[in-house]
Design a protein that fits this description.
The structure is a single chain. The chain is an alpha/beta fold and 369 residues long. It is globular. The longest helix has 20 residues. It starts with a helix and ends with a helix. Helix 10 packs parallel to helix 11 and helix 12 runs parallel beside helix 14. Strand 8, helix 12 and strand 9 form a beta-alpha-beta unit. The protein has 14 helices and nine strands.
Length: 369
């Protein structure tokens, strides 16, 4: 915990620079706590969030890195063959640069049939499907990486390519055209086009028993990347934790912890860095009043973060959004009682929630890296 003196020192510093943290006068920002341990803290920012001055203030105060919630994804940035729309994504990168913080790129290919751009799903790969899929992917990845150059320091090259039930590669029009080499191909093109950037495989495997096949599939994939020499630097742990995959809240028990550690041990043992890329806590099934729900969310998060951040290979933690009412989960997994979810560290008044304190405490308790 921070001593009173440390808080006071920071409070004076913050007051002098005119940027007290919203967590209370003098409370250190999440990014400053992360940096004290050799990490960074950040958040996903949606297009409309940049028009929200209070939202931007929170990001400026708390974050050392941002990622576009949607604006670097294929359907937005490359909405038709040969057509690129960089304007929305550029706006976030410009905001980050003005703020003096980094931007991560998410993502070059979401290898999932639901999330490909419709025109890609309908694409005619012709008589030589492999060659035309390679040409399409090369153009897409090289154009975007070259557009941003060093302004984007880390890319999720591939997102969610392993089926959570079976643990095997998802089938898409691209794997049908090229086979499983799609993934290595994308990483090689990204390395060529953005040699400075950290290249990440990002997925949502968790520690629950029901995620065993997903974890095993991701481990096989990472192992294959190593064996074949694909230029993959890190695994992104999306970390949408909580009730979204049928796990009752608070069931983070010793067997699950063992499974999760075994997974992280294998990943780090293979030499990959780790990032928590999309953290939020789904409280869809948590009952009780708001303080009780917030407490349960914070406790669950703390447990996850304490274990995961004990791995010094974790270098960044990003939440998927900032304020509860704007979380994607409100639309994707609404509560049965119709009440809004509370998955993020700031509430509807842009005030920090107990989850904010839990993240801060997890950073304070984490080893230096
Ligand atoms: C979500 C966005 O938050 C939504 O606005 C969008 O409609 C769908 O995608 N895993 C990911 C993210 O990798 O890109 C997803 O973002 C959330 C789950």
């Amino acid at each position: 915990m921070w001593s009173r003196r440390q808080y006071l020192t920071l409070a004076l510093g913050a007051a002098a620079s005119g940027c007290a943290s919203p967590a209370g006068v003098g409370a250190p920002s999440l990014d400053s706590l992360a940096r004290a341990k050799g990490m960074r803290f950040g958040a996903a920012v949606g297009r409309r969030d940049l028009d929200d001055a209070r939202y931007c203030d929170v990001v400026r105060r708390e974050c050392g890195v941002v990622v576009a919630e949607n604006d670097h994804k294929w359907p937005v940035i490359h909405p038709a063959p040969g057509v690129y729309d960089f304007a929305p994504g550029d706006r976030l990168v410009a905001f980050a640069e003005r703020t003096g913080i980094r931007t991560r790129g998410h993502n070059l290919l979401w290898q999932h049939p639901r999330w490909l751009a419709p025109w890609v799903t309908a694409y005619d790969f012709g008589a030589n499907p492999r060659a035309s899929a390679e040409a399409l992917l090369r153009e897409h990845i090289a154009t975007i990486c070259q557009h941003y150059g060093t302004r984007i320091s880390s890319w999720d090259v591939i997102n969610e390519s392993i089926d959570e039930q079976t643990g095997v590669l998802r089938e898409t029009v691209l794997t049908r055209a090229m086979g499983p080499e799609v993934l290595d191909f994308c990483f090689h093109v990204a390395r060529e086009a953005a040699p400075h950037a950290q290249l990440v495989y990002n997925d949502y495997m968790g520690w629950e028993a029901g995620s065993a096949n997903h974890r095993a599939g991701v481990l096989r994939l990472l192992h294959d990347f190593k064996t074949r020499g694909a230029p993959v630097d890190a695994l992104g742990l999306q970390s949408h934790i909580g009730a979204n995959r049928g796990t009752p809240q608070g069931s983070f028990n010793p067997p699950q912890e063992r499974e999760w550690r075994a997974f992280l041990d294998e990943v780090t043992g293979m030499g990959f860095d780790l990032l928590i890329t999309e953290f939020d806590v789904n409280d869809r099934t948590i009952t009780g009043d708001i303080p009780q729900r917030d407490r349960a969310v914070a406790d669950y998060a703390r447990r996850y973060l304490d274990i995961t951040l004990s791995y010094t290979r974790v270098k960044e933690v990003l939440t998927w959004g900032v304020v509860n009412p704007k979380s994607w989960l409100q639309r994707f997994t609404p509560r049965e009682d119709g009440l809004p979810l509370r998955p993020l560290p700031f509430d509807e008044n842009y005030e920090p929630t107990p989850l904010h304190a839990a993240i801060a405490e997890a950073f304070e308790g984490a080893p230096v890296r």
